[in-house]
Amino acid sequence: MKKEDNSSSMLQLFFFYFTFAPAKEPKDLNLIIDIGNTKAKIAFFDGGEIVDIVAESNQSLGCLKAFCSKYPVEQGIVATVIDLSEKVLADLAALPFPLLWLNHQTPLPVVNLYETPETLGYDRMAAVVGANEQFPHRDILVIDAGTCITYEFIDSKGQYHGGNISPGMQMRFKALHQFTGRLPLVDTNGRKLPMGRDTETAIRAGVMKGMEYEISGYIESMNTHFVRFCSRWLPERQSLKIIQTLLIHDMAMVTCPIRVSVTAGRWGELLLDFGMEHRSIR
């Protein structure tokens, strides 16, 4: 009987605690806005972890106000590769917290050796910053497949040496259609063959295999020219699987000694943590 009384008292205590205990104050989050050539990604981060993320039109950011009202926000950062409309700029300026704009004057936790930093796409630098934090003190090749495919190299000393820009998947499909008289517009949906058996599969294989071989070629070249870069990489089948994931889902791939990783927008929090008091704040 005594045991039952103790259990009953314990249940009453838990009920009282969870019913009347003061609610925890919600923690302020970091807002990361990445505006690309095709779409905008808006995300909330808490200590390196994504709390929520949404993809939006890069011309309107229509969900911004409603999305920001869902969470307490401490500060935010914006990186854009396009010119924004007056309305979007006004909506961003109206946000009730400090907003950092990533540009060529923003102090960075890496050394930028690019000869024309004012023309460097902020998405490219953001990817480099995130990769360097994820794999510190390593030579890293960062591959980002979006509207364009970019290849960036940062060494083990945190020095960014620059990179290359190549047409992305949709750009290649559209170019074959727009710059020829009879080739149809093809996409990734449909039969995928090593060698095309008709015009549609020939275009699809040409674009996707071409990108696969291009990415593999960059990795092989880096391994050849930078002995420190990677004395041992992943088995061929595993590396090709990652490349296919990269192409299909428009993600960023970081390759470094012995490791390959698909990474997300951690760069925003890194730059915010680096010291907003020294940044370009609007």
Q: What would the keywords be for this entry?
A:
alpha/beta, five-stranded mixed beta sheet, disordered C terminus, 282 residues
pLDDT < 50 runs, ≥5 residues: 9-24, 227-240, 256-264, 275-282
> Average pLDDT value?
76
Order of helices and strands: HEEEHEHEEHEEEHHHEEH
Rg is: 24 Å
Kindly report how far apart the N and C termini lie: 68 Å
- How many E strands? 11
Shape: globular
Query: Which class do the helix and strand fractions yield?
Result: alpha/beta
Which percent range fits the helix content?
25-40%
Strand content is 15-25%
Number of contiguous helices? 8
Largest sheet: 6 strands, mixed
Overview of the molecule:
By secondary structure, this protein is an alpha/beta fold. Helices cover 37% and strands 24% of the residues. The chain is built from 8 helices and 11 strands. Helix 4 crosses helix 8, helix 5 crosses helix 6 and helix 6 crosses helix 7. The longest helix has 27 residues.
List the helices and strands and how they pair.
Elements: H1 2-20, E1 29-35, E2 40-46, E3 49-56, H2 64-68, E4 73-80, H3 86-93, E5 99-101, E6 111-112, H4 122-134, E7 140-145, E8 148-154, E9 159-167, H5 169-178, H6 199-225, H7 236-249, E10 252-256, E11 259-263, H8 267-273
Parallel strand pairs: 1-4, 4-5, 6-9
Antiparallel strand pairs: 1-2, 2-3, 7-8, 7-10, 8-9, 10-11
Helix pairs in contact: 4-8, 5-6, 6-7
